[in-house]
Amino acid sequence: MTTHSSTTHDLAQRKVQFDWSQTPLHWIPGDASASHLVNEINLILPAGEFWFCKVFNRARPLITDDKLSEDVKGFVGQEAMHARAHDSATVEYLQASGIETSGHIRRVQWLFDKPLGDSPWGVSLPEFLQRPWLVLRLGAIAAIEHFTCVMGKFALENSAWEAAGADANMVDLLRWHGAEEVEHRCVAFDLYRHLCRLPAPLRYLLDMLLIMLVVPVMLFIWNSGAAYMMRQDPQLRSYHPSVWRPWIWREWRRAAAAGFIPSVGWLLWQALRYLRPGYHPTDEADTEPALLYLASSPATLRAESV
Question: Whole-model pTM?
Answer without folding.
Answer: 0.96
